[in-house]
Amino acid sequence: MEFNPDLDLILDPLVVIDKDYNIVYSNESAKKTFGEPKGNVKCYAHIFGFEKPCWHYAGYVCPIKEGQNRGDQNKICTLTLSVNTKEGLKRKLVRQYKRGNFYVELYLPYQVVKDVLTTRVELFAYSDDIYLTKKELEDLISSLLKRKEKFFIIIINVKKLKYINEIYGIPAGDLVIRAVEQVLGRLSTKHRFRFAQVAGGFFVLIPSMDFAQIENFEREVLKEFLSLDVKYLSSRIKPRITITTVEINPVHFKSVGDVYKLLLFAEKQRKQHAISHIFENQQGEFLDLLRKKEIAIRHLYKFLEEGRVTFYLQPIVSLSDGSISHFEVLMRFLDNGNVVSAGVYIDLIYELGLVAEFDSLLLDLLYEKLEDLARLKKPLFINVSDEDLRMLSYRRKLKKLLEVFAQKGIPISLEITEQLLFKEWGVIETLSKEYELKFVIDDFGTGYSSLKMVAEIVSKGLGSHIKIDCSLVKNYLTNRYIKAITDGVISFAKNTDLKTVGECIETSEQMEALKKAGLNYGQGWFFYKPMPLEEAIKLSS
């Protein structure tokens, strides 16, 4: 049968299939995309590599089967979309093939569709769009759960998207997301899967493959992204991803929500791996951890709602004479008569976005204990996060606290991370000018700011101390590279008139070695554990 030569003018792959699944025509674009069909080749084998028609696989439909079910097997089925500028051609197709047992499939890459959606695309009654909305994804997962058969879900997560937005700007992050969608759209045509953007750079794929095919697919995806280069203004951004494949057995999940919880939790647990797999027999551990996490979340909200927060103080000791020079304020939670370190919950607090709320409660407590804190007669170090400084109510409380502490003659230094120094430079300068504040750079050597910026804070008289991170102190005696870095930090601080504090000092050997290297102050269990305010007052007197 002769086919209209206009079909070759369509830039997207188009194939015509007879009622027995044989490919009877491919336009030039389809030949380039899928290869030229040899003989009576089945569409599902040639295009997707399936052994059976598409409708046998979870999440996929077949236009031929659909047509037969409706009793209109002699009519054309055009999948996904048809471009309005080609609607004349569409009418020719209907006239040409309506008397034959043929089916037409038109595959449009997602980005092509997205670019013309508002002006040049007409949706037909039947749509097999590769891109799923969140609701469609939930419905699809729900239908797969009802089948009571195991299936796989693939998570692709764009790493460091938050930092791309912060460093290059949100438009750059949007470009990265569009580039990811283009890659997935292109691969979905080849591998026949559907996907949804769940949040930010978090994509969920529903594949119709066995595990061996999934492994090959994962390697192909990773290769695609390793070569991806997104140009934004004068910068070139190379996005990096993680791929996590999770086996889902419906007997373990009551709802789509349960599946989502496992997916999000599992991806975070394996986020250090480029490719990881989580099979059914491994999920008991994850589900147990997830249950513990949910209990911890309930505890945190209870601490917050009931104000079950207090603080301990940990002395900072001068290595020259062993005297207490400062106290660091450390948050604690009151849990059924026990005092629990905030460090137990710190990752979860950040994940839930509760940092500023808890730190705000801490400021209230410090204000209440003003008279007792004055009896310490020692400067205080108070930790501040970038989330704190972005919260207006926290900034107001902080300014009030600084004013009353200054009136009482209680010196305060704010501990800030290198990350905060990088992101909130303007706020830091303002606070310093208004309240003659000095800042302590916490966790030095583990952040992402430049030494130049640290030097600038010193040159403007804003900094007083650098705290050397626990990870450097703990490995100082056993790792020569860590020792070299730490010695370099101490030397840098000395040359820029900053004092150094070593955190987590636990042995006399660590203390002596760091003292010899020029460390000024020490903090850790070798000297003192964190203690209640009453004990700190007795100690300082």
Question: What do these coordinates show?
Answer:
This protein has 541 residues and is an alpha/beta fold. The chain has three domains: 5-123; 134-278, 2-Layer Sandwich (Alpha-Beta Plaits), CATH 3.30.70.270; 299-540, TIM Barrel, CATH 3.20.20. The chain has 23 helices and 21 strands. The strands form five sheets. Strands 13-14-16-17-18-19-20-21 form an eight-stranded mixed β-barrel, surrounded by seven helices. A five-stranded mixed beta sheet has the order 7-8-6-11-12, with helices on both faces. Helix 8 (170-191) packs antiparallel against helix 9 and helix 13 (355-368) runs parallel beside helix 16 (392-407). The longest helix has 24 residues, at 283-306. The protein starts with 13 loop residues before the first strand and ends with a helix. Mean pLDDT is 80; it is low at 73-95 and 108-128.
Q: Any chance you could write out the topology, listing elements then pairs?
A:
Elements: E1 14-18, E2 23-26, H1 28-34, H2 43-48, H3 63-70, E3 81-83, H4 87-97, E4 102-106, H5 110-116, E5 121-123, H6 134-146, E6 151-158, H7 161-168, H8 170-191, E7 194-199, E8 202-206, H9 211-226, E9 230-232, E10 235-237, E11 241-248, H10 256-269, E12 275-278, H11 283-306, E13 309-318, E14 324-335, E15 338-341, H12 346-352, H13 355-368, H14 370-374, E16 380-383, H15 386-390, H16 392-407, E17 412-417, H17 418-423, H18 425-435, E18 438-444, H19 451-459, E19 463-468, H20 470-474, H21 480-495, E20 499-502, H22 508-517, E21 521-522, H23 533-540
Parallel strand pairs: 11-12, 14-16, 16-17, 17-18, 18-19, 19-20, 20-21
Antiparallel strand pairs: 1-2, 1-4, 3-5, 6-8, 6-11, 7-8, 9-10, 13-14, 13-21, 14-15
Helix pairs in contact: 7-8, 8-9, 10-11, 13-16
